[in-house]
Write a structure and sequence with these properties.
The structure holds two protein chains of two kinds. By secondary structure, chain A is an alpha/beta fold. Chain A has ten helices and ten strands. Chain B is globular, with a radius of gyration of 21 Å. In chain B, 50% of the residues are buried. The chains are: A alpha/beta, B alpha/beta.
Chain lengths: 249, 425
């Protein structure tokens, strides 16, 4: 038995493996004290080896986790387990986004991560949905109906918001703005992926991979199929759990 | 008992309250970053002492010498400005580059915010009257190494007399001619300021003293090539940083003493980390005191920095000046040759730098390179394109980090550096 726990900026994810099989997986909002949230998740499971990942990983070190690994390594392991032919991982989470290159054996050989701001992250989409008055799920489905996108130039969350407000005041259709925002985001994420070099199979992980508009625009942009797991947000926690299992062997 | 430096600072017109605040912050950070390290060489005690009294003893010492000999105290900002000439004419060179975000708000009262943090920091130290180093200088010497610096001299000159040397941007014969002329012109400037005349002996003596300092630093860096490393990257970086402030001859002696100790450690196989700790080599822009950000992240994540190809590292000491010419003209040629063998990205082309980095990385048995760029430094930032290609071809993993002096990106940088160490493990 092992647990992988991923303390992300928005949510905390846990995966519990018994005999190499996922027995339980949880995704909960981190709230104002992600450490406490993580501890209460860990208390659900019998005491067993834990590996922590995500930006809050060090908080669990020496208390609950035997070891920490970065979310880059965790996503590489998790994505490879879910899709054994995976060579490129694109992970877009709440606070950061990254592109990871894997060699034929699954070792990661290069990666790119967004800069310190929220540009190109889930937080960006969340704030933009809010300023357009969308519920986040409805916002994420906009690309399924709308075909016209108004170009958005800013990737800075603050500037993009003022750009959106000025478009609203020009009475541009909300759905066109929403699609434009997704396109701007995909352009950013795709250029990061191209920097590490896109090799098939491409796996899209992290919470933002549940956004169907992002998935279809990314496929168009990269001109290749993008694979998404049924629960893409637990990829990092799964990778950490698998690393914990590897540590036992 | 430490000497009360307030009367000294007051006499220089320093903003006492803020200087206390700045030094107070340093007094908290330094023990945390430095004194907590295990198994430090004993020879570091001297450098700790200098750092703890950084705005005190070095300043008093320079002012005492000035009173005794009439020495000109000359502030410089770049390793191309020849300290040898300042020393030959009885002066004291001191580095004034800024390494702290503390003075940003002062710079922002007059300068654009989106500029290199090193410049933003020193302009702030000047504008806010926060640096006794600035305030004890008779004049400053700038150079045309980059656009932001070039324009900053014009503004700084309103606050303190600033002389500018024109550094060429290529290394052809025509450029050597220009730089030779610039060195000769700087000798005239120093002669005028000091009221002395240059002599062959005095110039040779200046060259010998600076070469001795460079040789001592080179010994220190040679010792770092050993596995396990006998000294932390943070400690070695501190020594390189203090090379710009401390009295030259004593500094050289202390670095040699430290190197003796490190060489003994290497013989005995003693290190500050385990043999298998990931070894990282830094290449890029200068890391001015108290900028220990990257080194601290690497070394608090289980890695070790084994060398810096920066102005606060190899570029500072790697090239010596030929001491053999017996005429002032011959020595000027030798000074020009040394300058033009330094591989700074302000030159084009600058392919020798790439070769130099690859050689040092191999010799240091480094597992990977962190390419460090201060935000808004276009020359080093763009040069990365060629550097990355060459390093990858040579099979050397590289991670680029662009950052300034704030702490807001430390979490991100920590994730990247830890992931890089996982990648090269």
């Amino acid at each position: 038995m092992v647990v992988g726990i991923d303390l992300g900026s928005r949510t905390v994810k846990a995966v519990f493996l018994r005999n190499g099989v996922i027995e339980d997986a949880q995704v909960v909002l981190g709230g104002s004290d992600p450490y406490e949230t993580a501890v209460s998740l860990l208390k659900r499971y019998p005491r067993c080896p834990v590996i922590a990942t995500g930006y809050g990983r060090h908080a669990l070190k020496e208390t609950w986790a035997e070891k920490v690994i970065t979310e880059i390594k965790a996503h590489a392991i998790g994505a490879r387990y879910l899709f054994p032919s995976c060579r490129t991982v694109i992970d877009v989470g709440g606070q950061d986004s990254k592109a990871i290159a894997l060699d034929a054996n699954g070792n990661f050989t290069n990666f790119q991560m967004n800069d310190k701001c929220a540009a190109g992250t889930g937080k960006f989409l969340e704030i933009m949905a809010q300023s357009l008055g969308y519920d986040i799920d409805e916002f994420a489905r906009v690309g399924l109906r709308e075909t016209r996108a108004v170009p958005i130039n800013s990737m800075c969350t603050v500037f993009a918001e003022s750009e959106v407000i000025s478009l609203i005041s020009k009475r541009v259709k909300k759905a066109e703005i929403a699609l434009g925002l997704h396109e701007a985001m995909v352009t950013r994420v795709a250029s990061m992926a191209n920097r590490v070099g896109v090799v098939k199979d491409v796996v899209f992980s992290g919470g933002v991979a549940r956004n169907p508009t992002m998935v279809s625009l990314l496929e168009k942009k990269l001109k290749t199929e993008v694979k998404v797991a049924a629960a893409p947000d637990i990829t990092g926690a799964l990778g950490a759990a698998l690393a914990a299992e590897g540590m036992l062997n | 008992m430490a000497v009360d430096r307030h009367p000294l600072w007051k006499s220089l017109g320093i903003d006492l309250e803020r200087n206390d605040e700045f030094l107070g912050m340093l007094g908290v950070v330094y023990p945390e970053v430095y004194l907590s390290q295990p198994n430090r060489p004993k020879g570091m005690a001297y450098f700790d002492e200098v750092t703890f009294d950084i705005h005190g003893a070095p300043i008093q010492e320079m002012l005492d010498e000035k009173e005794r000999t009439g020495a000109q105290i000359v502030g410089t900002f770049c390793i191309y400005v020849p300290d040898e000439i300042i020393l030959a004419l009885g002066g004291i060179p001191v580095g004034l580059c800024g390494g702290s975000a503390y003075s940003f708000p002062d710079a922002d009262t007059m300068m654009p915010r989106n500029i290199c943090p090193l410049i933003r920091s020193y302009v702030g130290f000047k504008v806010g009257k926060l640096s006794p180093f600035f305030e004890c200088c008779d004049f400053l010497v700038g150079e045309t190494t980059c656009d932001a610096k070039k324009k900053t001299w014009e503004i700084l000159d309103d606050l303190q007399p600033t002389y500018v040397m024109e550094l060429p941007q290529r290394k052809d014969e025509i450029d050597r001619g220009l730089w030779r002329e610039e060195i000769a012109r700087f000798i005239e400037k120093m002669e005028e300021a000091s009221g002395k005349k240059i002599t062959v002996d005095a110039l040779k003596d200046g060259i010998r003293r600076v070469n001795a300092k460079r040789r001592a630093l080179k010994r220190l860096y040679e010792a770092r090539k050993a596995v396990p490393a006998p000294i932390s990257g943070k400690d070695a970086l501190l020594v390189s940083q203090l090379a710009f402030y401390d009295q030259i001859d004593r500094f050289t002696e202390k670095v040699n003493a430290l190197s003796d100790e490190l060489e003994a450690r290497v013989r005995d196989g003693v290190g500050v980390v385990a043999k298998d700790a990931p070894r990282l080599f830094i290449s890029g822009t200068p890391q001015v005191i108290p900028n220990w950000k990257i080194h601290h992240v690497v070394e608090s994540s289980g890695g070790i920095v084994v060398g810096e190809e920066t102005c606060t590292g190899i570029r500072y000491f790697n090239d010596l000046v030929d001491e053999s010419p017996d005429t002032v003209d011959g020595l000027i040629d030798a000074l020009a040759s040394r300058s033009l063998s330094i591989n700074c990205s302000c030159f084009t082309p600058n392919d020798d730098r790439i070769q130099q980095v690859i050689e040092w990385v191999k010799a240091s048995r480094a597992d990977g390179v962190i390419y460090y760029v201060l935000q808004f430094c276009h020359a080093y930032n763009v040069e990365y394109v060629k550097m990355e290609r060459a390093l990858r071809e040579a099979g050397i993993p590289v991670l680029k980090i662009e950052s300034d002096y704030g702490d807001e990106d430390v979490g991100q940088i920590k994730t990247r550096i830890e992931a890089f160490m996982e990648q090269i493990a």
